[in-house]
Amino acid sequence: QVQLVESGGGLVQAGGSLRLSCAPSGSLFNSNAMSWYRQAPGKQRVWVASITRGGTTNYADSVKGRFIISRDNAKNTAYLQMNSLEPEDTAVYYCNQNPFWGQGTQVTVSS
Predict the structure, then answer these.
(1) Torsion, Cα of 98, 47, 3, 70 (10° steps)
(2) CB-side exposure of 73: number of CA atoms within 13 Å?
(3) What is the pLDDT of residue 21?
């Protein structure tokens, strides 16, 4: 069964950077857009950023100018470069490529 697997989460101080990766666990060809979502404790999961196969990107206002989404189509892998991290960015980050979801990776930003 194909799954998406996130990696790269961790603990970082405010102002620091992290790079998340999302890759399929098995053989998968999927031309759908790839997206990142996040869910903070006690809150709903919210959309963060998306990228189409052609490279068109969109960002939530809360991360615009700080986060960069990219993808490697040959590997069907997505990345989320997160810069200038803030404590408010603390959440579990999930990768999505319909109809698949990853299991999430924890990002914690200390003040």
Answers:
(1) 90
(2) 9
(3) 97
Average pLDDT over residues 56-81: 95
Cα gap 18→86, rounded to integer Å = 12
Which pair of structure tokens corresponds to residue 74? 């040959």
pLDDT of residue 28: 66
Beta bridge partners of 9: none
The three-state secondary structure class of 70 is: strand
Calculate the CA dihedral of residues 85, 106, 56, 2 and round it to 10 degrees.
170
Cβ atoms 96, 80 nearer than 8 A: no
48 alpha carbon, distance to own chain's centre: 7
β-strand partners of 70: 79
CB of 29 within 8 A of CB of 3? no
pLDDT digits (tens, 9 = 90+) for 2-32: 689 999 999 999 999 999 999 988 766 677 8
Round to whole Å and give the CA distance between 65 and 43: 23
**Beta strands at 10-13 and 18-24: parallel, antiparallel or unpaired:** unpaired
